[in-house]
Amino acid sequence: MSTTSAYKLDNFESFYNIIDNELVPTAKTRRAVDPSNEELLAEVPVSTQQDVDRAVAAAQAAFPSWRDLSQDERAVYLTTFVDAIDAHQQEFAQLLGKEAGKPPQGVGIELYLLSHQIHETLKFRLTEEQIEDTDERRIVQRYIPIGVGVGIVPWNFPMLLGIIKLVSALLTGNTFIWKPSPYSPYTALKLGELGAKIFPKGVFNVLSGDEDLGPLLTAHPGVAKISFTGSVATGKKVMQACASTLKRVTLELGGNDAAIVMPDADLAMTVPKVATMAYFHSGQVCFCIKRVYVHEAIYDAFIAAIVEFVKSLKSGGPSDAEAVLGPIQNSMQYAKLLELYSQVSKQDLKVAYGGEAASSQSGSGFYLPPTVIDNPPEDSKLVVEEQFGPIVPILKWSDEEDVIRRANASSMGLGGSVWSKDIVAAERLTRRLEAGTVWVNAHFEVGPQAAFGGHKNSGIGVESGLDGLKGWCNAQVVWIKK
Known about the structure:
37% of the residues lie in helices and 22% in strands. By secondary structure, the protein is α/β, with parallel strands linked by helices. The chain folds into 2 domains: 10-253 and 458-481, Aldehyde Dehydrogenase, Chain A, domain 1, CATH 3.40.605.10; 257-447, Aldehyde Dehydrogenase, Chain A, domain 2 (3-Layer(aba) Sandwich), CATH 3.40.309.
């Protein structure tokens, strides 16, 4: 393959669907909103059933020859792709900041993780697993690609979460259609445009659209797998829609992650880490800490320390290099959070820092004050539901059995953590948390070397790691009589 310089994009101002390596306009377009200032962004396509049919047909036609390449050959294409992304890092950074409302620090984190994810994933290879080998017979299990895969990508990490799906699908021999969120379609369309210069025709397609685009893809008989990241409510609809065609499904859904702080925890180390992982991206991450259970012996000291830390978190948009907290990404989520913030006075909750939010003045961005709530009732909406915003409850506990019961009371089970100087005791406690990923003295540490997924209503299947790759394949057992 030729050098990265051959894969330069002409501009980052015009946006088209990418179908069969062609830039395809649509009759209807729409505009997303920059959440930092509420200004309309560029026009993007609104896909129809015809666009979906064309993209699926292109991906189906490309599948046999892509499948028949070796993993090493497919990895060469993907390596060229990530090198081309890195060469356009400045343009992608500006675009990501505008569509996601992320300050430069948040943009930098997403772009670093994206590059790291691809490079590390490309080191994996799915190999045949020998089950039995005797004089009479040999039994092996191998993994074969499913066909056309669709990634339905959320608005909070519009590049990274799509890349995880894309790279896993393509490396294992599937072809792919990327459906970005209507709130953040811009970087995905440019990734598709870049991919059209690198991959064979039909291997990587991108479709932008309204809320009705997802159902068109989940219902399509030519799609073999849906990988969806988003809310529990929408995930259930995706699973229901896939049932009629028995599509393979991976669902990475919401979380209501609990952090349990033990009485011996080192507050100087624990508080900054817990606060950072609770307010990261203004709380708009499924793996963010949503509930903090602190032992009564250190509760008052913890509250005082976390308030001081949160006070230091500066809010700002894509042009503010010092900002840590950005705006809420879209008007829908902003409205939900305004209603949640209103519960503070309705339920007479005790505010340790921050407080109720007023609606933004038009054009001022979807910003909300980072807020710490002091020991709200366990049945309050703020504790029971995933807030997905910068308002965090700190809750008091005294009995270990009771705090485990409270942590596990949620219908969700994405992540959970225990914070203690006693590593052995903390690790023992994590074994009782009903969650897909658990940590000791950390939270939201994920990487390409390990799978992540949810228990209970937080999802089905896993993304990333070797198991994430296997999720893009059908297992095939081969019996060989000698």
